[in-house]
Amino acid sequence: QWKQLENLYFREKKFAVEVHDPRRISVSRRTFGQSGLVVQTWYANTSLIKSIWVMAISQHQFYLDRKQSKAKIPSARSLDDIAMDLTEMGTPKISKLVTLEAKNQLIMASNGSLISSGSQDSEVSEEHKKEKIMELKKKEKLLQEKLLQKVEELKKICLREAELTGKMPKEYPLSAGEEPPLVRRRVGTAFKLDDNLLPSEEDPALQDLESNFIIQQKLVEAAKKLASEADLCKNVKKKRKQEYADAVKKLQEIENSINEYRIKCGKKPTQKSTLTLPGKQ
Q1: Which domain holds residue 60?
Q2: Tell me, what CATH number does 48's domain have?
Q3: Comparison of pLDDT for 280 and 21, the residue scoring more
């Protein structure tokens, strides 16, 4: 019977009716500790379930309106009076149906209940709303924390790029009115050449080869620093290792040229690169 109805609701493809039965004692999580509830459940596609729910809500509203009308109608009345009353009650009934339809439009397509459609049981409705609001606030907080973390990571990447290129990328996140930070280009491969690199009058050709060797030696050191730099992508790391290997190879070729020239001049060969570089590269 309608007077035993506790709630009507649907969730996705599920339609359920909660009926109060004093003969049975149970506890339902949805009713927050109320006892004596029996739940009947049916399953179908979402559109059909929602249609059934809307019809059930309308039937229940008709039951409430009819109950209220019976309480107002006197016991002894003529048929004309009854017809007149029904005619007058037609307009508010239509408006109620329109109001009910408008309320249904505000209810989510995959979620609805007798409580959400305007039941008198507002306490459960408010409690349900509070739970949903708390859940949404918790999700919002987690998303904000994750967003801040990603923004900090993006800032570090942009600063890293600015140190290498000398120019701050446009993707650097800025707050309203915030100016981008000034970053100096990091030159981690700078080196100082020896003062005695100019050719001497003693042997200009040999001095020129020695100068080339010293310059190439500094280039090898710079290439090694670049190749051993952390946080490099796979392609860049591979390219820098190859550049380092090419620089080492060229250094060895210069030393071979120096030794050939020294032997030609009757001097002993040297092993500068083997003393400078740690093993074979």
Answers
A1: 2-24+35-70
A2: 2.30.29.30
A3: 21
Residue 51 has pLDDT above 70, yes or no: yes
- Round to the nearest angstrom and report the end-to-end CA distance of the chain: 90
Contacts 24+ apart (CB under 8 A), 272-278: 272/213, 272/217, 273/217, 273/248, 276/217, 276/220, 277/220, 277/248, 277/251
CA distances for 262 relative to 104, 208, 210, 217, 257, angstroms:
98, 13, 11, 19, 9
Q: Is 172 among the domain residues?
A: no
Distance CA 251, CA 210 (A): 11
For the record, the structure tokens of 97 come out as 């149906």
Single pTM value for the model: 0.31
203 burial type by CB count under 10 A (0-12 exposed, 13-18 middle, 19+ buried): middle
Could you give the CA distance from residue 7 to residue 15 in angstroms, rounded to a whole number? 11
What tokens does 231 get?
A: 């946080």
In angstroms, the CA 37 to CA 31 distance is 9
| Count of structural domains within the chain | 2
How confident is the model over 140-182, as pLDDT tens digits?
Answer: 999 999 999 998 888 888 888 887 777 888 888 888 888 888 8
Q: Is residue 200 part of a domain?
A: yes
> Token digits for 254?
């210069």
Q: Answer yes or no: are the C-beta atoms of 14 and 40 closer than 8 Å.
A: no
Mean residue pLDDT across the chain:
75
Residue 227 lies in a domain: yes
Indicate whether 157 belongs to any domain: no
d(CA 7, CA 121): 9
Q: Which residue has the higher pLDDT, 77 or 69?
A: 69
Q: What is the pLDDT of residue 90?
A: 54
